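Example 9 (inverse folding). The structure is encoded as follows.
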């Protein structure tokens, strides 16, 4: 792409930026610029530009506001000790967005253009990438929305792809702690033939009421079962799951109706290198209950871009509870190995890291 750049005439001051980066939280502050490119059937992708960050002007009849035709990605940029800036497997985010785009009847943005858009925005706003202290990073959010002004149920004839970025602190303040899970027996996240494998906002919106249910019962996250039989574990509201058995092998629920997480696939490769066989298969809630009770399941963990890897504690449901598994040793070993690669503290034997600056 040919990308034009208009620099922000009033960027955040160095002093204010230092305050933000000292305690960025998550998704609260945004960098000085944003990337935009548009698509129409006649022109294809065109007018790629980096401009000062600011509000969008949308007509009330804009299609995305009525029919939720949109996709997004979540990824991070990491500053290494030598000051260089890297992203983690950006081509996988590009490929997943292409799959999501096809499911949402969007045009597909080429992988190279996706990566270029992210790289150039991060390069322009590189001062916003924190140092690695406390696992800080720059969270990058590419997204695609239907921007045609039209009230009709069909694929939008005007599409806008954007990238914004936000500095992020450590997901766990005060150290990694096991999350307590609530098993929802009323709500499901996605069904066969649905949008479960696409990264689209509707999947997250559908999880919110179940998350409220979990919070009301004192739990951190919600576990969803399959929509067809209501017995197989799928994923959490925004994280994939792994079950470690006493013989060292690991099981993770098979995809199809769940999101194919990039952290998820990376852990499968990493665990294999550490000598652990990983099975992708259907995994029932009964196997969870019985496995922990018998001691066959020794660890459970979840993963996602924001939290990386987190141990799972107890599982609760109306009228019952399964206690936390006995250990977290492999969980924390996998987590540390992955984080060390991302921040340049360990050799990247997989070729996962992509240098931006």
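The amino acid assigned to each position is listed next.
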């Amino acid at each position: 792409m040919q990308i034009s750049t208009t620099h922000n005439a009033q960027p955040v001051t160095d002093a204010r930026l230092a305050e933000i980066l000292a305690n960025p939280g998550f998704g609260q502050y945004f960098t000085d610029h944003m990337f935009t490119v548009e698509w129409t059937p006649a022109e294809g992708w065109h007018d790629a530009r980096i401009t000062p960050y600011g509000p969008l002007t949308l007509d009330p009849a804009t299609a995305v506001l009525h029919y939720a035709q949109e996709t997004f990605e979540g990824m991070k940029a990491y500053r290494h000790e030598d000051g260089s800036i890297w992203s983690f497997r950006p081509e996988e985010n590009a490929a997943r967005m292409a799959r999501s785009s096809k499911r949402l009847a969007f045009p597909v943005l080429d992988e190279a253009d996706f990566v270029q858009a992210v790289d150039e925005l991060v390069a322009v706003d590189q001062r916003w990438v924190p140092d690695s202290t406390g696992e800080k990073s720059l969270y990058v959010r590419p997204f695609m929305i239907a921007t045609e002004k039209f009230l009709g149920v069909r694929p939008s004839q005007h599409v806008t792809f954007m990238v914004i970025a936000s500095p992020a602190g450590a997901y766990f303040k005060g150290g990694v702690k096991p999350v307590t899970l609530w098993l929802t027996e009323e709500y499901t996240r996605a069904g066969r033939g649905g949008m479960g494998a696409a990264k689209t906002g509707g999947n997250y919106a559908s999880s919110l009421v179940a998350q409220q249910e979990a919070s009301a019962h004192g739990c951190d996250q919600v576990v969803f079962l399959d929509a067809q039989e209501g017995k197989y574990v799928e994923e959490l509201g925004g994280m994939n799951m792994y079950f470690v058995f006493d013989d060292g092998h690991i099981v993770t629920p098979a995809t199809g109706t769940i999101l194919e997480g990039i952290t998820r696939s990376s852990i499968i490769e990493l665990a294999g290198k550490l000598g652990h066989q990983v099975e992708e298969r259907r995994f029932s809630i009964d196997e969870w209950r019985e496995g922990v009770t018998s001691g066959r399941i020794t660890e459970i963990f979840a993963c996602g871009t924001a939290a990386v890897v987190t141990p799972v504690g107890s599982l609760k449901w109306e009228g019952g509870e399964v206690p936390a598994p006995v250990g977290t040793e492999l969980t924390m070993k996998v987590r540390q190995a992955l984080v060390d690669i991302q921040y340049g503290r360990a050799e990247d034997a997989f070729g996962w890291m992509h240098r931006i600056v």
